[in-house]
Specification:
Elements: E1 7-12, H1 20-26, H2 32-36, H3 63-75, E2 80-88, E3 91-93, H4 96-104, E4 111-115, E5 120-122, E6 127-133, H5 139-153, E7 160-161, E8 164-169, H6 178-191, E9 198-203, E10 219-222, H7 227-246, H8 254-257, E11 259-262, H9 263-271, E12 280-281, E13 283-284, E14 288-289, E15 299-302, H10 306-319, E16 328-331, E17 335-336, E18 341-342, H11 352-366
Parallel strand pairs: 1-2, 1-16, 2-4, 4-8, 8-9, 9-10, 10-12, 11-15, 13-16
Antiparallel strand pairs: 2-3, 5-6, 7-8, 14-15, 17-18
Helix pairs in contact: 5-6, 9-10, 10-11
């Protein structure tokens, strides 16, 4: 069987430069680093805080930083970045890094966009129910939105699948009429001479695990951590909570206040998932720990190593051997530092997770699965 070397696409968070809204909501100069530097270990062996190494506490307004990220990604086998895109009824948020990438033509690394179409809440400090900006959907906004994105789709660096620009929607189920939105988008890009889009819904929530075709999408994307699996794994951790309650001297408060999951349990459960009868691009995560954001109710996935992550990436490719979905594999993420979810070098592991990524892609290229 001829091997198809997958294109690895890493999610990219642009929350590393100050903006007026963040200054107002959280204080002058707030960025993702604000929460990262406050984190503390909650139990023995808990890896916190996560301190960046080579790139430091960077500012994404600096072109040299963006170039260094791209050079590093390319060196270790990452095909491109999937930038989170924030649009609220004509208002963009955190748009400067990507806009400068688009307008300058640098760095020369492939990219695509994922519309993070949730309400803007206080997720950055764990207060998810406090809404700061609502999403208000309309056909007029759908049209304005897609017209604003057309210059991105026309860029030669834009990632295509089946020769169509690849566009992701984080929460398709939040759209009042997804089919109507996707029809408007397709018609408008055809009018612009682009042809068509390849639209992909992200299975970012258990409610999003539905056939994408029924909503006007071409495919779905598995999201990791899979919160449906995490919910099941949390049930197992309740035993630890019971012991923590009655024998507190043997446990830290973390077992009462947070959800602590073993990385290998997530890997095993993910690999056991049934392959759906629709196209679903696979995804892996090197690690996850959002306790830097949440003082209570964080999900801490512990026990990750570069070796376990490398094996998961290879096994994910194997699992999709009878589908075209393995042509694209997503990694969550390149730089979600406050979620402990990143490939960039840190002070503990250095380049180890990047090396693991390169080892995986090289082994996939050599072997037949």
């Amino acid at each position: 069987m001829l091997n198809v070397k997958p294109r690895l696409i890493a999610f990219y968070l642009p929350q590393y430069h100050p903006i007026p809204e963040n200054d107002e909501w959280w204080g002058k100069g707030f960025t993702e680093w604000t929460n990262v530097t406050k984190a503390k270990p909650l139990f023995k062996g808990h890896y916190q805080p996560h301190i960046p190494a080579d790139l430091g506490f960077y500012d994404l307004r600096v072109p040299e930083t963006r170039q260094a990220q791209a050079d590093m990604a390319r060196e270790y086998g990452i095909h491109g970045f999937c930038y989170y895109h924030y649009w609220f009824n004509g208002k963009r948020m955190l748009e400067r890094p990507f806009q400068e990438v688009l307008e300058s033509g640098e760095p020369d690394l492939p990219f695509c966009l994922c519309w993070a179409n949730e309400n803007w809440t206080r997720t950055w400090d764990g207060k998810d129910n406090q809404i700061l900006i609502n999403q208000n959907y309309s056909e007029k906004d759908d049209l304005e939105h897609i017209r604003a994105l057309i210059p991105s789709f026309m860029d030669p660096r834009y990632i295509r699948h089946d020769e169509k620009p690849l566009m992701l929607i984080y929460r398709a189920g939040e759209l009042p009429d997804p089919k109507k939105t996707t029809d408007i988008w397709r018609n408008e890009v055809q009018r612009a001479g682009i042809g068509d889009l390849f639209l992909c819904k992200v299975e970012s929530n258990p409610k999003e695990h539905t056939d994408p075709g029924s909503q006007g999408f071409d495919a779905a994307l598995e999201f990791q951590p899979d919160w449906g699996l995490i919910k099941d794994l949390k049930r197992r951790s309740r035993i630890a909570k019971v012991f923590a309650k009655f024998i507190p001297q043997l446990f830290s408060d973390a077992y009462l206040n947070h959800k602590i999951i073993q990385y290998q349990d997530l890997v095993n459960s993910s690999l056991e998932k049934e392959i759906p009868n629709y196209t679903r691009f696979p995804c892996v995560t090197p690690r996850w720990d959002n306790s830097a954001r949440k003082q209570v109710g964080a999900t801490i996935i512990t026990g990750s190593t570069p070796e376990k992550y490398q094996s998961w990436l290879i096994d994910t490719y194997k699992n999709n051997k009878n589908t075209g979905a393995r042509e694209l594999i997503f990694i969550n993420a390149w730089n979600e530092w406050a979620e402990g979810n990143y490939l960039e070098p840190d002070m503990k592991f250095g380049h180890d997770y990047l090396v693991a990524t390169k080892n995986a892609i090289d082994q996939i290229a050599k072997e037949s699965y």
